[in-house]
Amino acid sequence: MRVLVAGGAGFIGSQIADALIAAGHQVLVIDDLSSGRRENVPREAGFAQVDIRDVEKLLSAVADFRPQAVSHQAAQVSVSKSARRPVWDAEINVIGSLNLLHACVRHGIERLVFASSGGAIYGEVPEGRRAAVDWPAHPLSPYGTAKLAVEHYLDFYRHEYGLVSCILRYANVYGPRQDPYGEAGVVAVFSTNLLRGESIQINARAETGDPGCVRDYVYVGDVVGANLAALQGRLDGRIVNVGTGRATSTLELARIVEAAAKVKATIRFGPHRVGDLERSVLDASEDDPVHPYTPLEEGIEETVAWFRRFLKES
Q1: Closest CA to 47 of 176, 98, 37
Q2: CB 48 within 8 A of CB 4
Q3: Which of 248, 263, 265, 283 could form a Cys-Cys staple with 132, CB 3.0–4.6 A?
């Protein structure tokens, strides 16, 4: 199968590309390299530096490669930046996505898998609850609003043009290759800071000094597994939560990273960050193809080991 991976030089997209190559598929990665890294792209994959906002370059790349399926991982992922620059966020996450859907229809692509967001779409999830796919959508940021908009556009393209799609709503993804300087990469930030002997900060859930926000952390290898299942057609027409259902506070996460790094952490406590959800935990689908998920402690061990090697080599 020929698969185009949009955003395939990034943290998640590049590992999807790796897995596709390992499974014997042909891969073209497109990425504007604004946050992705060229060295993340597998050597066996084709590569085109394309911004999905540039419809002519996008159409040209798709026409040349003639993919049968698309993995759409390309996005502007900063919630805080989306709040400061909502038009810019929409240009990338909505208009760019529409350009890609247009390319799919124009060139007869059979299937598209869309990387959406569980936390950003569901909003606050009360204590003791998990958000299933039928949880009322209540995005509290332009980023979440854009992701939900693309989900609705996919309904239109399925109804009007017959484009087969699957929506994967990710929990908080962590693992090797994550950017330690991005706002979504708390595991990467904690790992690199502790390995460098630097302090870490727990931002408050409500008041400074509390254990911090509660999240559902899912290992990138499990996210890759969900994407491969979707690209194989096992999840056509579905919305699937990709999360473990385990609720973990930032302080608990810090202790797990501390144990994996074998370093005593110096912890600072900061105020609540504007725009941060207090609690976001997903309820995985009953027939989720990823089960069993990688236990958090095991995934953190592998992630810290990767960052230890990365820091030695950099």
Answers
A1: 37
A2: no
A3: 283
Residues of the chain with pLDDT under 50: none
Own/partner contacts of 154-163, CB < 8 Å, gap of 24 or more, are: 154/101, 154/112, 154/114, 157/101, 157/104, 157/105, 158/237, 161/105, 163/101, 163/104, 163/105, 163/109, 163/112
pLDDT digits (tens, 9 = 90+) for 171-222: 999 999 998 875 568 999 999 999 999 999 999 999 999 999 999 999 999 9
Residue 117 phi, psi (nearest 5):
-135, 125
Q: Which residues contact 156 (CB under 8 A, 6 or more apart)?
A: none
- At how many degrees (to 10) do helices 186-195 and 250-261 cross? 40
pTM over 0.90: yes
143 catalytic? Reply is: yes
Token pair of 30 as six digits: 């497109």
d(CA 155, CA 110): 15
Beta strands in the chain (DSSP E): 2-6, 26-31, 46-49, 69-72, 111-117, 164-170, 172-174, 200-203, 214-215, 217-219, 239-242, 248-249, 267-270, 279-280
Given the residues 122, 143, 170, 219, the one annotated as active site: 143
